[in-house]
Write a structure and sequence with these properties.
Length: 302
């Protein structure tokens, strides 16, 4: 373990919130609403924020908008939460984004899974090594969605880059996660269940100590209740929360997660907190399907 990253490691072992990026009527990033939503998360007890995550529509934002979202998040947090900035695309773009995050005062970057159609395991290591070496003072968290990647390759990366301190693991296979974490080094990294609340209990049982969440935008207390139960080993309590959020997460995961962000924004819109607008290739929820989402959101203790 690298002593200088202890604070970052501790921050990752929590509900890692992925804020939405609200859009104004003219389609631009709604700065005022974005700040208001961030304050709501912070006031709700969230201690780590990930600007430019997938729930923030990372791939639909322009480079300038990604910078803006990072700047707004760091400024609004004002030291109240750790900041884990999503970076990705080509290597120079990812490095520039990571350096920008560090200059603003962010403590960590999350490297999105490469979307190139031809990703070799050697190339995966090279990609992350280039980014991590460019920002040695930042904690680096690979976002792993590739079921073919083996744990030994992550260990190889961390041998070269001690600032690789955590992993957002988002392969939907608890047994594979358990094996991958042990092959890479269970105690060497902070393991974050990257598929949010539905997978958190099973991944915690195999070694995860944090989980990502888009649902937390809607009901911070619900997500925090789950992690408190998991931390205390109260799996029946955690599963009560799991049952509470099950339908909401099923709607998000349906049809290859087509409405993953859409459902979150629809719930926020039903509460009067932001517009429901999303950008292509996502699309707003049809009016005929909105009532169920609104009923779920209204039923939570917000």
């Amino acid at each position: 373990m690298t002593a200088s990253f202890e604070a970052q490691r501790a921050a990752l072992a929590d509900v890692v919130a992925i804020p939405v990026t609200p859009f104004a009527e003219d389609g631009t990033v709604d700065r005022y609403t974005h700040r208001a939503l961030l304050r709501r998360l912070l006031d709700g007890g969230v201690k780590i924020l990930t600007p430019n995550g997938n729930t923030g529509e990372f791939y639909a934002l322009t480079p300038q908008e990604r910078q803006l979202v990072t700047e707004l998040t760091v400024d609004e947090a004002g030291g109240r939460a750790a900041i884990l900035v999503g970076v990705g695309h080509d290597v120079p773009t990812a490095i520039a984004s990571a350096r920008h995050a560090g200059e603003l005062g962010a403590q960590m970057v999350m490297v999105h899974q490469p979307v190139h159609p031809y990703v070799s395991q050697d190339g995966w290591v090279d990609y992350h090594r280039a980014i991590a070496e460019a920002v040695p003072d930042l904690g680096v968290v690979p976002y792993i969605r590739n079921a073919q990647l083996i744990g030994a390759r992550l260990a190889e990366l961390a041998d070269d880059c001690p600032n690789v301190i955590g992993v957002k693991y988002a392969v939907p296979d608890a047994a594979r996660f358990a094996a991958f974490a042990r092959d890479a080094g269970l105690e060497r990294f902070v393991w974050v269940a990257g598929l949010a609340e539905p997978y958190a209990p099973s991944y915690f049982s195999a070694g995860a100590t944090g989980f990502t969440s888009g649902l937390v935008n809607v009901a911070p207390s619900v997500s925090l209740n789950m992690i408190e139960a998991l931390r205390s080993g109260d799996y029946p309590g955690a599963m009560k929360v799991w049952e509470q959020i099950r339908r909401f997460e099923e709607l998000r995961a349906a049809n290859g997660s087509a409405n993953n962000v859409t459902i979150v924004k629809e719930a926020l819109a039903s509460l009067g907190l932001c517009r429901r607008d999303v950008r292509p290739p996502s699309r707003p929820l049809p009016e005929s399907e909105r009532a169920e989402v609104a009923a779920i959101a209204a039923g939570w203790s917000i």
